[in-house]
Amino acid sequence: MKIGFIGLGNMGAPMAQNLLKAGHQLQVFDLVESAVAELVKAGASSAASPKEVAAARPDVLITMLPASIHVRKVYLGEEGVLAAVDPSVLLIDSSTIDPQTSRDVAAIAAKQGNTMLDAPVSGGTGGAKAGTLTFMVGGEQAAFDQARPVLEQMGKNIVYCGGAGNGQVAKVANNMLLGISMIGAAEAMSLGVSLGMDPKVLAGIINTSSGRCWSTEVYNPWPDVVETAPASNGYTGGFGSDLMLKDLGLATEAARAAKVPVVMGATAQQLYQTFSTQGHGHLDFSAIIQSMGKVEK
C-alpha cells in the first residue's frame, strides 16, 4: 500500500517505521530534516510539503502533529493536504487535539469528497516503537473498517468510538483521568512513606487493595518501586509533564464548551501548570510527586 505520513516526532517516527517494516511504500514529510533523513534511510521517500505528499495520491495519508493549530495548517493551508489531495485518499489524523477541531477539519474534507478519521493514540513512545498502541477512532464506520488493517500494523487495540471527533473525546477523557489518578497515587505514596512505610510494601498493599490503579501498579511515581517506570530512571522517557498539561488543557476546554464541571480535572491542570512553570515540564508526568516533598530512593 502507498501511504503518506506527515509528522515524524517522538510518536510519528516509530509509527512510520512500523509501516515500513510491514512492507508499505511510504512518503514522509516533517519540518525537522534529520527526522526525515532517518525515515529515508529506512526506505521511505521524502516530500517538500504536506501538499506534495497529498499530490502523490497515496492510498492513505496519516498525520501525527503536536496541536490543533498544526492540524489546521497542515490540512487547510495553501501548502496543505486539502489543496491537492484526491477524493479517493483516506485521511487519518492521529494527533491529540480538541474534538471540535477534528470535527471542523473532517467536515471541510468531506465537502471536497474526502473521508477523514480522527485516531489519537495511547501507549506512549514505548508503544509506538513496539507497535502496541491503542487507537481511539472517530468517523464513519466504513472508513474505520478500511483503515483498520493499517492501524493494526502500528497498534494492538483498535477501537471504534463513533462519529467524527469521538476518538479525541475518548483520548481527552482518558488522559484527564490519568492525570488525576497520578496525582492521587503521588499523594498516597508520599503520605505513606513520610509516615514510615517502606515504599515497595506500601505499593504492594495498594495494588492488592481498593486503591489499585495503573498509576500505582504499572507507573508508580516513587523511585525503584516499579523497575520499568520512569520514576526509576530519573523521571526520563515516558510521557512528559508538558504533554500531560496539554491534554488536561484540551479536556478542561472541551468541558467548558460542553458546560460540564470537571473540578478534579481543572485542579490537576493547575498542579501540572505550576510544575511546568517551575521548570519541570520536560520530566515524566509521574515526577509531579516531587512537588509534594522530598522523594527518597
Automatic annotation (TrEMBL):
InterPro entries: 3-OH-isobutyrate_DH-rel_CS, 6-PGluconate_DH-like_C_sf, 6PGD_dom2, 6PGDH_NADP-bd, HIBADH, HIBADH-like_NADP-bd, HIBADH-related, NAD(P)-bd_dom_sf. Residues 165-290 form the 3-hydroxyisobutyrate dehydrogenase-like NAD-binding domain. Its EC number is 1.1.1.31. Pathway: Amino-acid degradation; L-valine degradation. The active site is at K171. It comes from the Bacteria. It catalyses: 3-hydroxy-2-methylpropanoate + NAD(+) = 2-methyl-3-oxopropanoate + NADH + H(+). It is an enzyme of class 1 (oxidoreductase). The keyword DNA-binding does not apply. Pfam families: NAD_binding_11 (PF14833), NAD_binding_2 (PF03446). Residues 2-162 form the 6-phosphogluconate dehydrogenase NADP-binding domain. The keyword NAD applies. Gene3D superfamilies: N-(1-d-carboxylethyl)-l-norvaline Dehydrogenase, domain 2 (1.10.1040.10), NAD(P)-binding Rossmann-like Domain (3.40.50.720). SUPFAM superfamilies: 6-phosphogluconate dehydrogenase C-terminal domain-like, NAD(P)-binding Rossmann-fold domains. GO terms for molecular function: 3-hydroxyisobutyrate dehydrogenase activity; NAD binding; NADP binding. Belongs to the HIBADH-related family. This is 3-hydroxyisobutyrate dehydrogenase. It comes from Advenella kashmirensis W13003.
